[in-house]
Write a structure and sequence with these properties.
Number of strands: 13
Low-confidence stretches: 1-5, 347-352, 384-401
Strand order of the largest sheet: 5-6-1-7-8
CATH class of the largest domain: Alpha Beta
CATH topology of the largest domain: Dna Ligase, domain 1
Number of domains: 2
Helix content: 40-55%
Radius of gyration: 24 Å
Shape: globular
CATH superfamily of the largest domain: DNA polymerase, Y-family, little finger domain
Mean pLDDT: 84
Number of helices: 15
CATH architecture of the largest domain: 2-Layer Sandwich
Distance between the termini: 53 Å
Structural class: alpha+beta
Strand content: 15-25%
């Protein structure tokens, strides 16, 4: 499979074991020992772990209880998203000042399009100097790869870790990928890798040799994409970084109300909605605000800073506390709203530092249902009475047909 493309220079920078690195900057005693970032309870989940812990088979998203069985001498450090956000902003600012096009893929990884810079600076020298600058100014170890596309640069960065760098020359994309295990390919999760291994596919080289029609018949459209990736082809652009300021939702009532139970149910509904949007965008918020507009059109807002999270429980708890401080029971309410701000990117769709494994699975199941059937497909029992009435009405209409 051949494709003619103009020569591009795409760099991928990834902070090495970012959460652990921040913990080590805060406390040097964490250097050189197995460290687990996550909930302090053994019912929590590992959000990140040091390379020393990985040597014992520990990995992120693993139940903390299992991680401690594998590595009983590991030290658990509670996550601090405020610090992660601050360091992430520092790194982003350093890189953004130096490169023409930057894409912030997550809280700890960055793509940059350096095409054209090779004619003036030399991309290899530039990326090395940028890596050194990040490490010198922040103290954080970072790895990078320079290649002709985003796919190869990401795969190569993972192979270069920890604290390494590599350049894959044009034309060497497919040979570079060939010996790697299929699990090294971005987008190949547990389910896909199991199916591929059942077909006898263990390396990317074997995957690249399978006819496209066969992969398409087995995996659908994603089979075509698998073939492209296995052959080192990726034409996706580096998307310029722009930071979303907030996510909000508000409701103006048909008639002004003083019904506190109704107002509380509306707050739950709105909070669930914005928290779901937050997780869909793979973001976390550091500030929660509640807005009230009374019948006389006077409008008031209260906000509170929180540890970065996308958890319904954390957001709801804060919303309820703000509402108690804000609500004047003597006045009719015309509008109510919830806003989440101080947003940061992150891999984790919920707060892995305080949630248990059971709550992680519950959120994932609820979000899956909402994604497939709409954001009102599942909700808490207290959530908006109108929501329940609407759904019951729909069910009755369906049964009468």
């Amino acid at each position: 499979m051949q494709v003619d493309i103009d020569r591009r220079f795409i760099a991928h920078f990834d902070l090495d074991s970012f959460f652990v690195s921040v913990a080590r900057l805060k406390d040097p005693k964490n250097i050189g020992i197995p460290v687990l970032i996550g909930g302090t309870s053994d019912r929590g989940v590992v959000a990140a772990c040091s390379y020393e812990a990985r040597a014992f088979g520990v990995h992120s998203a693993m139940p903390m209880k299992l991680a401690l069985r594998l590595c009983p001498h590991a030290k658990i450090v509670k996550g601090d998203y405020e610090e992660y956000s601050r360091y992430s902003r520092d790194v982003t600012d350093i890189i953004r000042e130096e490169v023409p096009v930057l894409e912030k893929a997550s809280i700890d990884e960055f793509y940059m399009d350096l095409t054209g810079m090779d004619k003036f600076f030399g991309c290899r020298k530039f990326t090395q100097e940028l890596k050194d600058k990040v490490q010198k100014q922040t103290g954080l170890p970072i790895s990078y790869a320079l290649a002709s596309n985003k796919l190869i640069s990401k795969v190569a960065t993972n192979e270069a870790k920890p604290n390494g760098q590599i350049e894959i020359d044009l034309g060497q994309e497919k040979p570079y990928l060939a010996p790697l295990k299929i699990e090294k390919m971005p987008g190949v999760g547990e389910k896909t890798s199991t199916l591929l291994r059942q077909m006898g596919v263990e390396t990317i080289k074997i995957l690249s040799e399978i006819p496209v029609p066969l992969l398409e018949s087995r995996f659908g459209k994603s089979g075509i994409e698998l073939s492209r990736k296995a052959n080192g082809i990726d034409l996706s652009p580096v998307i310029p970084y722009s930071e979303q300021k907030s996510i909000s939702k508000e409701e103006t009532f048909e008639s002004d109300t003083i019904d506190v139970h109704f107002l509380q149910s509306e707050l739950v509904r709105l909070s669930e909605n914005v928290a779901f949007q937050l997780r869909q965008q793979r973001k976390l918020c550091g500030c929660v605000a509640v807005k009230l507009r009374y019948s006389n059109f006077d409008t008031y807002t209260r906000q509170a800073m929180i540890a970065y999270s996308a958890s319904d429980e954390v957001i709801l708890r804060t919303v309820k506390e703000l509402f108690k401080k804000l609500y004047d029971k003597r006045l009719l309410v015309r509008l109510i709203g919830v806003r989440l701000s101080h947003l940061v990117n992150g891999h984790h769709q919920i707060d892995l530092f305080s949630e248990t494994e059971e709550s992680v699975r519950l959120y994932q199941a609820m979000d899956h249902i909402r994604t497939r059937f709409g954001d009102t497909a599942v909700f808490r029992a207290i959530s908006n009475v109108n929501n329940r009435k609407s759904i019951m009405s729909t069910l009755r209409q369906s049964s009468n047909r």
